[in-house]
Every structure is written in structure tokens, then in C-alpha cells.
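User: Predict the structure for this protein chain, please.
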Amino acid sequence: MDAILFYGIIILLALGFLALAWFIVRGWLALIVDFLAGVLKLLWGIIKAAFWVVTLPFRLIGAIFRLFRKKSTASREQDVTSV
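Assistant: Here is the predicted structure, written as C-alpha cells:
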């Protein structure tokens, strides 16, 4: 009877320790996954910002050229006839 009580207490202590260890491991895994998700989100923001920094001057130059380019005579005649 004493052996059953002793081993029962040992088994309960072991299960409690395993539960505590599982909570610790799960917490660390959650921290690591959250950290990696934050790093990926930050990298994605940097990539998007770099894309805009690189493409914006070309878009502005294209807009300026479209504003000041001369229209061909065919499109000018089409504009006049459409009015």
C-alpha cells in the first residue's frame, strides 16, 4: 500500500513537471514565432518602401514627359473633329 502511494505521488509530480515543461516550451515557441513574424513584417515594409523610393522618380519623370510632349498631328485632328 505504501509503494502504491509513493509511486502515485512520483507519477503526479512527474506529470506536473511535464506539464510545466510543456508550458515553458510552448511559450518559447510562441515568442520565437511572434518574433519571426515581426521580422518578416518589418522586412516587407522595408521592401515596399524601397520599391516606392526606386520607382517614384521614374513615375514623376514619365508624368512630366507626358505633360510636355507634343501630340502627333493625327491625334490633334482627332481631338478637333471629336468636338
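The chain is about 95% helix and 0% strand.
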